[in-house]
Write a structure and sequence with these properties.
By secondary structure, the protein is α+β, with helices and mostly antiparallel strands. It has 14 helices and 8 strands.
Length: 397
Amino acid sequence: MVLIPVGFLTKSDDEEKPEPAAAPRTVAGKERIERRVELIRQLRFKRETPVREVSKAQTRREGLAQLSRQYPLAQRRTDEELLELLGLLEPGTDLRTISGSLYGEQVAGFYDTRTKRLSVVQDSSGGAPLVEITLAHELTHALEDQHFTLRDEDTPGVEDGTSAYAALIEGSATSVMTDYARRYPGSVSLGDALTSLLDSSGGTGLPPYIEVSALFPYLRGEAFVSELRRVGGWKLVNAAYDRPPSSTEQILHPEKYLRVEQPDPVTLTVRLAAPWRRVAKGTVGEFDTGQLLQRSGAGDAVDAAAGWGGGAYELWRNGPLPDPACPAPCAKRDALVVAWRWDSVKDAREFERALRPAVKGMRGAASAIVPGDGTTVLALAPTAAQARTLASQSPAG
C-alpha cells in the first residue's frame, strides 16, 4: 500500500539545478569512511561519489518536488481514501503534508540514483555521530548502485513487492551501518547509531501506520539481510539483487525467500456497473495485513497474518474523488474489495477470527466477510446487500 520514505534515504530525483553547495564538514573524512564501508561490504567503489551539503529547507523543497512528479495528486487522494476507509489513517490526513514534515525534519541524508550524488543535511538532529553514520549508510547505497544498479522505487503508493525491494536496499545499508558502529567505536558507538536511526525516523508524532511503514525497510530489512549474511555471507546478499524478494512475507520470514516461496496469485472479479469506476488496485502483503489487524488492537495480529499466501484489493468509486459534499472517506461512494489466499484452511480461519473485530475500526458504510477454502474476501460498500454481493463474486483465486 503506502510507503513514505524517511530517515537515512530519500532518493531526490530533482530536476532543478541547485546552486553549488559547500562541502560537508566531514568531507575530509569521506575517503576513510569509504574504505571502511568497502571493507565491511566486501565490494570496491568503481568511481567517485560526489557529496554535497544541503539545508533542511532545500531537502524539503526537493523532496516535495519529487513527490509532485512521482506521486500525482489524483493517486495521492485515492491512497488517502483507501487508507482512511480501512482505518489505517484518520479522516482528513494529507500525505503531502506528512511528507513535507519528513523531508524537512526527519531526513539525515539521501543518495540520488539518477545523479549518483550523495547529500548530507545540515544540522540534522543527532549531531556528528549521525553525520558519520549517514555517510556510511548512503555510501553503501552508492557502492551497491555501482555494482547492481539500484531501482528507484520508493515512491508512495507502491506494490508489496516494491516494499520488499526497498527493504533489501535499506536493510543492506543499515546492516553495514550497524557493523560500522560496532567495528569503529572510536567514531560512534552502536548505541548512538541505533538511537540516531530511531530518533530520525520514529517518535515523530506521525500517524502510527505511516511511522511503522517508514521504519519497516530499515529495521525488518536489516534483520532480513542479517539472516542472508548468516546463511551465505555477503555473496548471498549480492545474489539477492539478481533475485530480489518478491513480498514483505519474504522479508518477515527469510526462510521463505531462501526456499523461493512465491506469493500465490490473487485475481479479483469485481463487477459494478456505471457510474461506478475502479480508481485503484494493488497487492496487500503480509506486512499490511498485519497492520490492518494491529490497528484494531488485535493481540494476535502477527500470528494471524503469518499464514499469508497472497493478497489483492480493488477500490471502486461512484462519483468524484474527492467529493466536496462528502469528506473522505466517503462511505456512500466507496466500494472496496480485499481478498487473501492462505497457506492452509487453518490459517484462513485464524485470520477471519482476527479480522471480524478489526472491521469495526474500518469506515465503510457496510461490510461483509466471505470465507472460502483457504481464502478470505472482505468487502466494504454503501449497503450490506452490496457488500455481500461483492464479497461473494470475488473469490481469492
